[in-house]
Specification:
By secondary structure, this protein is an all-alpha fold. It has helices at residues 12-30, 32-51, 59-84, 92-109, 118-142, 147-165, 177-184, 217-243, 251-273, 280-298, 300-310, 312-317, 322-348, 359-369, 381-401, 405-429; strands at 194-197, 213-215. It folds into two domains: 55-185 and 279-430, ABC transporter involved in vitamin B12 uptake, BtuC, CATH 1.10.3470; 192-278, no CATH class. Helix 3 crosses helix 9.
Length: 430
């Protein structure tokens, strides 16, 4: 008779030691898209920092980078919800150009009196943008016309109206300085500057431009507060997941991600502070990003948009009014397209017929590079923002290097294709 000897049970400590690396690897794979985007952005920035001989990270260039590409990120926030809901909007560039032309006409050409005030004009233009979005969303939501067709028609219509408003090929300007501050202005230093290195004075007693080092302390304080808030809310969200029994990313990965992101943010804040401070448009963009993160992660309407994009019929059966939700998504896109048009006009200081031309491609590319799915139901606000910055850094870096515009389009197309292939690969593997 043989005696079977059972193996001794493993200790709990040994199991935890063996499972620890497995959990870390599993979390890394699960969050590969998020980590990969951040690492890709950092790698692209470092690459262009070397290839441009240090020009990319210069404070003046960073300010220009934000001001030139902010409208892409603003419109990408709205495009994210459109794509997540299972639709597309090809008219955003034309709507932006039309709104910029309308704003210029109201402020410069038409005798509107008090109504030509930049603030009043901006509000009116945002309302008109929302109405345009409602008009397009109505046909998509209630008549089931594909969004591709509706917005393609909108792209042609509003590009034509933009050119008609401006008289064919002429520009309208200059626009008021108060309006141009939206894109080219900087926040005031209410705390006061801090001089670390006094500027150099030449023989004539005049200060040499660019010498010395003076920090914009309001920018420094705002940057520190933002980084601390990012770390605090990230830690709180992680603890909340653990308290509700959900698996959270390993603490080590969380710390590394937070430290890398915070270090990059503080470096950029220091660069802005050593120039003129934070651009006003960056503050507007930051407020919108925070708002959309809150809406998509904390509000019922955000969850319903994702549910509708994942399975529209199931969402309807669960009581979600998909028609009204689709209409709201396109209204939101119209308002953000109008804001993008105002930013473009403010940046140029005038309205031109070609404003916003082709920008819909950069906006859509930013959302897909950020991890959104063309089938709907998948996508994150932070991903769209990082995707927008990737597009902006590539545009800026290749322009500084003197790369021909034709080849810039080729590179951006390859990056977009690579991002989509990577996304499909991950889904098939999962």
């Amino acid at each position: 008779m043989s005696t079977e000897i059972s193996p001794a049970p493993k200790s709990g400590v040994a199991e935890e030691v063996q499972q620890g690396p497995r959990v870390a690897v599993s979390a890394l794979v699960t969050n590969l898209r998020e980590y990969g985007l951040i690492l890709a952005l950092i790698a692209i920035m470092v690459f262009f920092q070397f290839t441009t001989s240090g020009t990319l990270f210069k404070p003046v260039n960073l300010s220009n980078l934000v001001q030139q590409n902010s409208f892409i990120i603003v419109m990408a926030l709205g495009m994210l919800l459109v794509i997540v809901s299972g639709h597309i909007d090809l008219s955003v560039g034309s709507v932006a150009g039309f709104i910029g032309a309308l704003a210029a006409m109201m402020m410069v050409i038409w005798p509107l009196g008090p109504l030509s005030n930049p603030l009043v004009v901006s509000i009116v233009c945002l309302v008109i943008g929302g109405a345009i979005g409602a008009g397009q969303g109505y046909w998509v939501a209630y008549h089931r016309i594909p969004s591709f067709i509706v917005t393609l028609a909108g792209m042609l219509i509003f590009r034509g109206i933009c050119q008609a408003l401006l008289g064919g090929g002429s520009s309208v300007g200059p626009l008021p300085d108060g309006f141009k501050a939206l894109s080219s202005g900087f926040i005031p230093d209410v705390i006061g500057p801090l001089t670390l290195v006094p500027p150099t004075v030449n023989a004539a007693g005049k200060t040499i431009v660019g010498s010395g080092l003076t920090l914009h302390m309001t920018t420094i304080v705002l940057g520190l507060v933002a980084v601390l808030a990012y770390a605090y809310f990230g830690l709180r969200a992680r603890r909340t997941r653990e308290q509700h029994g959900y698996q959270a990313e390993p603490f080590t990965l969380f710390v590394i991600k937070t430290l890398v992101t915070s270090a990059l943010a503080l470096f950029l804040v220091y660069q802005f502070a050593s120039y003129k401070g934070l651009p006003i448009v960056l503050m507007v963009m930051g407020a919108l990003i925070a708002l959309f993160v809150f809406v998509t992660k904390r509000m019922t309407i955000g969850r319903r948009i994702y549910a509708m994009g994942g399975n529209a019929k199931a969402a309807q059966l669960s009581g979600i009014k998909t028609e009204r939700l689709t209409l709201m998504v396109f209204v939101n896109m119209g308002v953000l397209s109008a804001l993008g048009g105002l930013i473009i006009a403010a940046r140029l200081g005038q309205a031109v017929p070609a404003a916003g031309l082709g920008s819909e491609l950069d906006v859509i590319a930013a959302v897909f590079i950020g991890g959104a799915s063309a089938m709907g139901g998948v996508g994150q606000v932070i991903g769209a923002v990082v995707g927008g910055f990737i597009m902006g850094v590539m545009n800026n870096g290749m322009s500084i290097m003197g790369v021909n515009v034709d080849w810039q389009q080729v590179v951006k197309g390859l990056v977009l294709l690579g991002a989509v292939v990577f996304d499909v690969y991950n889904k098939n593997k999962g």
